[in-house]
């Protein structure tokens, strides 16, 4: 199906109806022949019977027209004309099911071939690889039985390039290169070593691999690990959970899985955190002391915002914790909830689970949310402590009083919107615990 010379006089927009008409006529003709064979078009499409017909149509009707006249009008037409004509290529690509060259690739190939012909010389030495357009054209014409000389002329490349491409595809081998220094058995040994020791670094794994008799460099070890899908990561530090604690976490999550964000907004979350002066120095080279100054701070939050911080002067025991509840938690609850009812959350630290503390909650009529052990990933206050630590990264407190002032000022910058988003994440945290069957989650 060759392109008539009159197509050169057509504008791209005027050329589209002609090409589409040929396209529809060819498809309808194939559908009629399918009906005679008592086969539906759907069955033919599933059997990919349209592939040779559509490839022939594309090369004969579209590509031949474009390659003969694309250098005449491609530079003069605007972007919308090229996009409109490219729609035909996309339609043919969907029906054929294989990749087809773009108009811009055809134009670039033709312009390069013309420039080389005008210059009157060929590129010596190692030539560039064939483009996608040239490979597609070579494969299509080779299947039709064309000679290599004709294929080279149509594809715009040398006959030797066509011969190499055809021979490479026929033998089923890829580009030549240096043989790998490791065998499949060595790679399996490396994979088993990485899976058995996931916390070792590349250097340690390389030493263990070479000790098994493999001759490879550290860079080769790293490349083989990347080819297997392994990546270097810093392990997340999570609390150790035994089987009993996992079962309790799973049972607690299943019991609270139906709670909505509105119900979680009635919960007042609390936690204590120790902050030291040495932790807040982010320099690469920092001085180290044996006993850095640190402060213990208690904080709480709800969906309405954060409660004022309370700095503890001594070790937290039942008496100290009850004093925090009396002078810090109750005023914060009045500030955040007013006269509305709320549920207080705390972990199972010894000072929290003491009998005297439980009696204090009963005397004040405050319900306490039962909480699984070693579950900081379920407490949104932990995320607030992380926000405070990141914001204090560039702070330089010199003593404990400056550290307290920095923590208090950073805590005051937390907005109610941040607290509301953390409270809304509780259903997702519970779903993650259920999915992990009680194991630690990413939160």
UniProtKB/TrEMBL annotation:
It comes from Cirrhinus mrigala (Mrigala). Residues 191-256 form the Transposase Tc1-like domain. It holds the Pfam family DDE_3. Residues 292-404 form the Tc1-like transposase DDE domain. Coiled coil: none annotated. This is Transposase.
């Amino acid at each position: 199906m060759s392109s008539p010379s009159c197509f050169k006089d057509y504008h791209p927009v005027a050329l589209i109806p002609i090409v589409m008409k040929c396209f529809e006529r060819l498809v309808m003709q194939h559908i009629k022949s399918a009906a005679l064979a008592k086969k539906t078009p759907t069955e033919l499409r599933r059997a990919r019977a349209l592939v040779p017909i559509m490839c022939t149509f594309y090369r004969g009707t579209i590509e031949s027209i474009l390659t003969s006249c694309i250098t005449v009008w491609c530079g003069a037409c605007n972007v919308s004309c090229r996009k409109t004509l490219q729609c035909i290529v996309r339609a043919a690509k969907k029906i054929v099911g294989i990749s087809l060259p773009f108009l811009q690739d055809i134009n670039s190939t033709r312009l390069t071939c013309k420039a080389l012909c005008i210059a009157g010389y060929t590129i010596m030495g190692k030539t560039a690889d064939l483009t996608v357009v040239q490979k597609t054209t070579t494969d299509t014409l080779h299947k039709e039985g064309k000679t290599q000389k004709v294929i080279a002329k149509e594809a715009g490349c040398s006959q030797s390039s066509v011969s190499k491409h055809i021979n490479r595809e026929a033998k089923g081998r890829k580009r030549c290169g240096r043989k790998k220094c490791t065998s499949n058995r060595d790679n399996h040994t490396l994979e088993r070593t990485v899976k058995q020791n996931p916390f070792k670094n590349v250097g340690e794994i390389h030493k263990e691999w070479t000790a098994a008799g493999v001759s490879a460099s550290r860079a080769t070890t790293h490349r083989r690990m990347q080819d297997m899908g392994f990546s270097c990561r810093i392990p997340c530090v999570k609390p150790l959970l035994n089987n009993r604690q996992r079962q309790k976490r799973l049972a607690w999550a299943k019991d609270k899985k139906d709670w909505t964000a509105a119900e979680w907004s009635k919960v007042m979350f609390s936690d204590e955190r120790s902050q030291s002066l040495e932790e807040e120095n982010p320099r690469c080279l920092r001085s180290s002391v044996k006993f850095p100054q640190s402060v213990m701070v208690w904080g709480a939050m709800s969906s309405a915002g954060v409660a004022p911080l309370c700095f503890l002067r001594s070790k937290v025991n039942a008496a100290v914790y009850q004093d925090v509840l009396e002078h810090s938690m109750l005023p914060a609850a009045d500030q955040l909830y007013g006269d509305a009812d709320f549920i207080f959350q705390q972990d199972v630290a010894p000072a929290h689970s003491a009998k005297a503390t439980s009696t204090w909650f009963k005397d004040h009529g405050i319900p306490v949310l039962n909480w699984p052990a070693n579950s900081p990933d379920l407490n949104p206050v932990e995320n607030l402590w992380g926000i405070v630590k990141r914001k204090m990264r560039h702070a330089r407190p010199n003593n404990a009083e400056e550290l307290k002032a920095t923590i208090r000022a950073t805590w005051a910058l937390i907005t109610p919107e941040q607290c509301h988003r953390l409270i809304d994440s509780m259903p997702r945290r519970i779903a993650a615990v259920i999915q992990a069957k009680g194991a630690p989650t990413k939160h």
